[in-house]
């Protein structure tokens, strides 16, 4: 049974990845510090499963990392651990630098030392996969897409911290020979997403009949990627990606934010009409834009398709319907997440 060390595996994307990996027969050592966005409820189906070992801890804890690597002897390390919300990075950038830059550096140093001490076959087979974001590339105009050769131009404290971590991963490959892989993904959505992000936030507010905040004119465009498709892409890159390479992962589903919100409104009106009969689109409220809000992201994932044969399996329409149904079916999970530390309030206004 292969063993993977997954960092940030109680978060949204990491949690989905851990669930998928264990189901496919991988033993996962899951290291997560359990900030506000980490939630063990996501992993409750793995309670008592010997293939899942959860450890609460920080990627910046060098002694803990050294112990976990020595004890479990992982065949790969997959790094999801990150502060990830742009609005929070506007209010408090220092935490993003600490986790995304300093924490990633600490992780890389411990993994490098572990990898160097492996015997030759294990050293050749080992991989370190770093999960990053398309936001490191900055903002696009009305045309064009981000490719793996697009120059970095991060515009928020969050994306700047992720860009720094990407550069550290690249440097550890070129300087020390560490066999790294990097993925840069578009906007994820799906089950278990913390409700500060657009889609779960709008679902929660629309269910409650509250105003639905849309930044600016609502025409900022994102490429939406269903989290299950993202997890399958990561697994494929880990399996067959070329060492030292970056692979962009996109959903081929560009949508303006306002269209995303309107789609959620229509789905909820069909499934859970408001008692007063109002259409939920009437709740849309345009609010002051986020500072430095990038206008458009779009991913060219042709490298991943051509080299590794990966393409997304769900259209946006299929994925968003599946996501709305999941939140309707899992309201107790949502309510436990909203434990008092976050109450759907507006943050990140600088």
How is the topology of this model organized?
Layout: E1 3-7, H1 12-23, E2 27-32, E3 52-56, H2 62-72, E4 76-79, H3 86-91, H4 93-116, H5 120-125, E5 127-133, H6 157-176, E6 180-185, E7 187-189, H7 198-208, E8 212-215, E9 221-226, H8 227-240, E10 246-249, E11 254-256, H9 257-271, E12 284-287, H10 302-308, H11 316-329, H12 331-337
Parallel strand pairs: 1-2, 1-4, 2-3, 4-5, 5-6, 6-10, 7-9, 8-12
Antiparallel strand pairs: 9-11
CATH first level of the domain at 3-189 and 225-250 and 297-313: Alpha Beta
Kindly report the CATH topology of the domain at 3-189 and 225-250 and 297-313: Rossmann fold
H-E string:
EHEEHEHHHEHEEHEEHEEHEHHH
**Beta-strand fraction estimate:** 15-25%
Biggest sheet overview? 7 strands, parallel
Number-wise, the strands total: 12
Give the helix tally.
12
Main sheet strand line-up: 3-2-1-4-5-6-10
Query: Architecture of the domain at 3-189 and 225-250 and 297-313 in CATH?
Result: 3-Layer(aba) Sandwich
Which descriptor suits the 3D outline? globular
Report how far apart the termini are. Answer: 48 Å
- Give Rg in angstroms: 20 Å
Could you list the spans in which at least 5 consecutive residues all have pLDDT below 50?
none
Helix content: 40-55%
- Class by SSE composition: alpha/beta
Overall average pLDDT = 94
What's the name of the CATH homologous superfamily of the domain at 3-189 and 225-250 and 297-313?
NAD(P)-binding Rossmann-like Domain
Summarize the entry for a quick read.
The N and C termini lie far apart (48 Å). The protein has twelve helices and twelve strands.
